[in-house]
Amino acid sequence: MSPAFQFRRLLQTSLAAALAVGGVLLDAIQPRPSHSAEDIRITTTGPLVLTVSVDDLATFAETGEITPGLRLYAALLNDALLGQLQAGLAFKLPLDVVMVDNVAYSPLGRDVLFNLGKVVQAT
After folding, report:
1. Are 60 and 89 in contact (CB under 8 A)?
2. Most buried pick, 8, 42, 70, 122, via CB within 10 A?
3. Strands (E), the chain
4. Using DSSP, how many helices (H) and how many strands (E) does the chain show?
5. Alpha-carbon distance 44 to 26, whole Å?
6. What is the pLDDT of residues 84-110, one digit of tens each?
7. Predicted model pTM
8. Is residue 51 helix, strand or coil?
């Protein structure tokens, strides 16, 4: 075999290996579609677990309408608390991505998210 043939063969093999590894890496880092939560589960002390539909909460925040999924919980709250809940759900936090990143990776932010995850879970 001539040196030129060996060199060409080495280039072909290297290129094939690079494409194979690149394809595996690209597949590994390629973004996957995310799925939003359909329900929010709130775990309390003891066996009580409250589950609320995100759609029901969004409807309540936007229109104030109490959907059938919220009717049981709304019956436990008075009008003032329902008003506060609606205002809280509709409140928009003026946060940008950098601010959220800085807070989430701070020691206090990690603790808050960890403890919140014990109580509220998306399902």
Report:
1. yes
2. 70
3. 39-43, 49-53, 120-122
4. 6, 3
5. 42
6. 989 988 888 787 888 888 888 899 888
7. 0.58
8. strand
